[in-house]
Specification:
Blueprint lengths: L3 E6 L3 H12 L1 H8 L3 E7 L15 E3 L2 H5 L6 E4 L6 H11 L3 E4 L2 H18 L3 E2 L10 H8 L5 E7 L2 H13 L3 H10 L8 H4 L2 H15 L9 E2 L7 H9 L2 E12 L2 E12 L11 E8 L3 E8 L3 H18 L30 E11 L4 H11 L4 E6 L8 E8 L2 E2 H11 L5 E10 L4
Parallel strand pairs: 1-2, 1-4, 2-3, 4-5, 5-6, 8-10, 10-17
Antiparallel strand pairs: 7-9, 7-11, 9-10, 11-12, 13-15, 13-16, 13-17, 14-15
Bound molecules: NADPH dihydro-nicotinamide-adenine-dinucleotide phosphate (NDP) and L-homoserine.
Length: about 425
């Protein structure tokens, strides 16, 4: 029977959830793993802080390097977060010959190539299922379950905090900052919540998903990233009138010219299942050439959903202890010397349809000017809505849905539209995806 002794870095939301799940389900987990999983040493900053878990029997320290250096610890679980101290700790754990489990997507997205190489060199396992989409086993599903496929594209709601905010704003008319504060209280948000609302956390996760889907190195800096802070209730309302929902999506698509990697608010037809994924829930659609479209859904953040993925990784570690390292599943699902050097497309070469909203002076010829500029840039219009002006006002809201166009053409058309004297303020542009 393989049993493991674990050192835990972090006793916060996920660390606490991990201790609780391991304690509550100890017997069931051991029946699955074929061995026991025991946390013997744990680190946090403030040992006097009240915890969501019972730490009885665990040696506690404020020095995380003491855990990483503990000769009795075989597996280090890194749940501190960030890319500075966490990177040093993980690299030290690997150097000390310890297996590592982490939920830290920022660390994997930014330093994963280096960390995986070090883990291979030292013949230790490095598992990170909890890093993407909380409790959904999306990494295992793509890396192992879809191994027969050439993945064509994937698109996901992969930030629970952002989806929680958008849902509460839409359904209950709540204020952005008020919902964000609640997401922080519930333990969903990152230590720096701008990572959630500016799309950085989703970009970390998309980086990982794209590498696993397409067998390319992790390239966080190549992801085009927009957050949710500029979405207005007005746009949510107009989108609904047109039969769409606005969701914050991470999209990775293989095209003949290269790979699209982008994170941004997106209009999705309301009849798509993913358009109806609300609250802290996450969902990822993956399109493989053999399997077709598959959808993965579940809690994207929170103590126990995330702990579910952390503990599953620990079970994998126990099961794999007696296997030859050459038989371990490669970190990205592709043999490391077979990663492809596929080009990542600059956003100007991305293809998308668009929702455009602008305020224009209510006078003859304005719509004609707009449609002429769009036509000159090879942009076809799918639908137009012009709202009647409020009494006494001379400005109208004009909403256009375009067909699919190259982003660079749209940039050039919008630069021309910006020069029209009938235009008031800026044009709001949100990408539209049909996810067929
Ligand atoms: P928390 O902030 O709740 O917990 C972080 C823990 O790390 C705390 O216990 C903190 O100690 C400890 N810590 C921080 N710095 C140090 C240090 N210098 N020395 C020792 N201990 C330290 O974070 P989460 O649990 O929410 O997140 C942990 C990781 O999991 C992050 O990488 C996050 O991105 C990822 N993640 C989080 C999810 C979630 O839903 N929250 C979901 C999926 C992934 P103390 O408590 O004393 O301050
Ligand atoms: N802050 C992240 C989110 C945690 O809200 O999705 C889960 O990765």
């Amino acid at each position: 029977m393989n049993s493991i002794k674990v050192g835990l870095l972090g006793l916060g939301t996920v660390g606490g959830g991990t201790i609780t799940v391991l304690q509550r389900n100890a017997e069931e987990i051991s029946r699955r793993a074929g061995g026991t999983i025991e946390i013997i040493h744990a680190a946090a900053r403030d040992l006097a802080k009240p915890r969501i878990c019972d730490t009885t029997g665990i040696e506690l320290t404020t020095d995380p390097f003491a855990v990483v250096g503990n000769p009795n610890v075989q597996v280090v679980v890194e749940l501190i977060g960030g890319t500075g101290l966490a990177r040093d700790l993980v690299m030290q754990a690997i150097a000390n010959g310890k297996h590592v489990v982490t939920a830290n997507k920022a660390l994997i997205a930014k330093h994963g190539n280096e960390i995986f190489a070090a883990a291979r060199e030292r013949n230790v396992m490095l598992a990170f299922e909890a890093a993407v989409a909380g409790g959904i086993p999306i990494i295992k599903s793509i890396r192992e379950g879809l191994a027969a496929n050439e993945i064509e594209w994937l698109a996901g709601i992969i930030n629970g905090t952002g989806n929680f905010i958008l849902t509460e704003m839409r359904d209950k008319g709540r204020d952005f900052n008020d919902v964000l504060a609640e997401a922080q209280r519930l333990g969903y948000a990152e230590a720096d919540p701008t990572f959630d609302v500016e799309g950085i956390d989703a970009a970390h996760k998309l980086t990982i998903l794209a590498s696993i889907a397409f067998g390319v190195p992790l390239q966080f800096d190549a992801v085009y990233t927009e957050g949710i802070t500029r979405i207005t209730r007005e746009d949510v309302g107009f989108a609904e009138e047109l039969g769409y929902r606005i969701k914050h999506l991470g999209i990775a698509r293989r095209t003949p010219l290269g790979i699209e990697l982008r994170v941004h608010p997106t209009l999705i037809p309301e009849r798509r299942l993913i358009a109806n994924v609300d609250g802290v829930m996450n969902a990822v659609v993956v399109k493989g050439d053999a399997v077709g479209s598959t959808l993965y859904y579940g809690a994207g953040a929170g103590a126990e959903p995330t702990a579910s993925a952390v503990v599953a990784d620990l079970v994998d570690v126990v099961r794999s202890l007696s296997c030859d390292p050459n038989s371990w599943v490669p970190h990205l699902g592709f043999q490391p010397d077979n990663l492809a050097d596929t080009r990542i497309l600059p956003v100007a070469e991305v293809q998308s349809a668009y929702y455009l909203r602008m305020q224009v002076v209510d006078r003859p010829g304005v719509l004609a000017d707009l449609t002429r500029i769009l036509a000159e840039h090879e942009i076809s219009i799918e639908a137009v809505i012009q709202k009647e002006p409020q009494q006494g006002e001379s400005l109208v809201n004009l909403i256009l849905l375009t067909r699919v166009v190259m982003e660079g053409n749209m940039d050039r058309a919008l630069a021309r539209i910006a020069t029209l004297d009938a235009l008031f303020g800026e044009v709001t542009r949100i990408r539209v995806e049909y996810l067929k």
